[in-house]
Fold this sequence. Notes:
372 residues; alpha/beta; Dehydroquinate synthase-like, alpha domain; globular
Amino acid sequence: MSIEAASTVHVDLGERSYDILIGPGLIGNAGEAIASRLKGKRMAVITDEHVGAIYLGPLTESLAAQGISVHPLTLPAGEKTKSFAHLMTVTDHVLDAKIERNDAVIALGGGVIGDLTGFAAGIVRRGTRFIQIPTSLLAQVDSSVGGKTGINARQGKNLIGVFHQPDLVLADSDTLTTLSPREFRAGYAEVAKYGLIDKPDFFEWLETNWRDVFAGGDARIHAIAVSCQAKADVVAKDERENGLRALLNLGHTFGHALEAATAYDSARLVHGEGVSIGMTLAHQFSARMNLASPDLAARVEAHLRAVGLPTRMDEIPGELPPAEILLEAITQDKKVKSGKLTFILTRGLGESFVADDVPASEVLTFLREKRG
Amino acid sequence: MSIEAASTVHVDLGERSYDILIGPGLIGNAGEAIASRLKGKRMAVITDEHVGAIYLGPLTESLAAQGISVHPLTLPAGEKTKSFAHLMTVTDHVLDAKIERNDAVIALGGGVIGDLTGFAAGIVRRGTRFIQIPTSLLAQVDSSVGGKTGINARQGKNLIGVFHQPDLVLADSDTLTTLSPREFRAGYAEVAKYGLIDKPDFFEWLETNWRDVFAGGDARIHAIAVSCQAKADVVAKDERENGLRALLNLGHTFGHALEAATAYDSARLVHGEGVSIGMTLAHQFSARMNLASPDLAARVEAHLRAVGLPTRMDEIPGELPPAEILLEAITQDKKVKSGKLTFILTRGLGESFVADDVPASEVLTFLREKRG
């Protein structure tokens, strides 16, 4: 049987080009999809305890049917797994499994497993083949595409890592049926982001059709495919984030600061929720800087609220640190250049741009006011 | 004052191109050489306790005179510093020093400090600017050129790392005057290697002039410059070691196995000594496989012995593990492809080539015989 995915997105990066297959049933057919593209017969599979309990069995069976020996490693679920200690565990496992250059390391899980595993694959033997099987909406539309990998540091999120492109991405839409509503919504924040960056028509389509996207089926696969294509287009133009790619950080500078302020405690805030609040703040701050209308900020906030996402800092349970500390978290963010603050702001619906000379004092006043 | 180095080698890697300055007095003028090329005003300097005691002062002074703030970190000397634990110490230091994208991380030391620091620079913020100030002959002619960085793993040497090119290399020949004769000889093994790979004239020149190279002065600077140029030429053609670059591993597959077998104990064996024994073994094995004459192997061994380098396994103090264990160390080596053994062998003086289908059984028999 040949593998037919409902949708295929090609990421065009010269000799590092690869396909993203999107659709139902891909994990059960992973062996064929992989064996038709890679020669290797040994694969290390890195997963977490939640995802592994459901999908490691079917994946292993599918790989074994192609004569591929599977070397699984199951890690704790959660953001704290993106650490140096777990990175060492993964590289040690991959080396013990004697994964060679034609073999591959497979990430089976959400963004945490994908980022950690991709980093490990990027540094074992200075670069080992790597396959992403993202099982969360967030990972399917964002973190599994584009080659950014990494772990968190004491000083901030994703501050340590490498660019390492996968050889193949299998986005099995069946895995999304087991996500909690909260997790699905968090991933949806990144879907909406692509509309807000430079696809006003897509954002309008989401305003009309978001219930179908949440229900599953064709609208969901369409939303994932448009998102992957949007990210692939940006990455193809700017693989190493020297310019354009920064647009993908819309909502992320505020969002990362809030994640740091809540100590990456997912009970309080998950990444996509931080991005939702961050995108709202970015539009409000754009209005305050007279770049866009307050109506646009209200429209964006209304859509994010409609799907059930948080949009205000005071929705985060527990106490937030003072605005000064939030600003400090922003200035330690990796997008800082020579002490100036860089934000993604907007001039209208789907008209985002990189503003790299934002006065810290304006941001501080704004944060004080919005923190309440 | 403009900086005039005795010799400059340009490494041509498109937008990642950089210069290697070679000559006396470069550390004292490092500030000017760096400030004329990089805009950043914050630099983390990573060094070890031996090198730092001599050169950290003059380097800091030279950078401070250009208004550059210096954030030094001194680590223990020795191969054991190429570990995950020290990698974490360096990345933590660089993040705490708030080194941004226009700033740089400087490696001041030998190959260990260069490899570790380059790896840290390669992963902080997914790539931070990096300057090499190599203070050993080995680092000047080999490890500081070409962008290979990394640490050792339990399973073998340099198994974890990234390709990360420096922005500048300052090879101050004055630093070689404080090397022990043993250290200088170890670096010389890599100099001789470039002749044996594809520069028979250079090898002949070394046979005649090696005493002048050891004495210092112009012959030494010439030998360093030819070596850097030889490596730069190979790297420019094959940055990521997909083919040609493997030639630089002449002597290294046997050498790494011997280093692993002696637990990286520098009292027993240092890298260059392993390479010297490894190059001799590679020429002897080439003769055994009827690729080259036994006379050539004898000639190569005679030159390496003349300068005082070891060429036989039984010169390594202490007991070596059995040949089977040495072979195992070779097969875990990162140059393995699909279980076949890859060696750099030769067809004549300066006629090395990549042999990627060497039978393990032949190697085992050879190792048994040579181990004695």
